[in-house]
Amino acid sequence: MHRRTWIAMILAYLIPGMGHIYLDRRQRGAAFFGIVTFLFLFGLAIDGSLYTMIPGNLLSVLATLGSMGSGAYYFTARAISESHGAFGDVKSITYEHGKMFTLTAGLMNLLLVLDTFDIAERGKP
């Protein structure tokens, strides 16, 4: 794998769309940045929270790994929640929907990392 591929994939993981921008797919990168950012922030805004691992619960581990796919967004939100209190209100009717939005943002960003790999290695249009 080329150095360019590694850089693009790391950038794509850390900041959604940045790997595409690095690979001169600026419009695509900007669109992906907007979509993933909206999903993640909207999920938190409607009282969603971040998944956390519960020992012995495989689904919570998988959901947490999926949420971590949003890269810097996840780790920044996790740091904020640890210092200023957790996001989300379990009593809110939109709590579970918000969690799904943050999970969807992470899973989509992981797919975008694979897309940057495909572009960098195979020259996908």
What key phrases describe this protein's structure?
125 residues, mainly alpha, 71% helix
What would you note in describing this structure?
The protein is mostly helical and 125 residues long. It has one domain. 71% of the residues lie in helices and 0% in strands. The protein is built from six helices and no strands. The mean pLDDT is 92.
* Tally of individual helices: 6
**Main sheet specs:** none
Structural class: mainly alpha
Mean pLDDT: 92
Secondary structure elements and their pairing?
Elements: H1 3-14, H2 18-22, H3 26-45, H4 58-68, H5 72-84, H6 95-122
Helix pairs in contact: 1-6, 3-6, 4-6
Quick overview:
The protein is mainly α and 125 residues long. The chain has one domain.
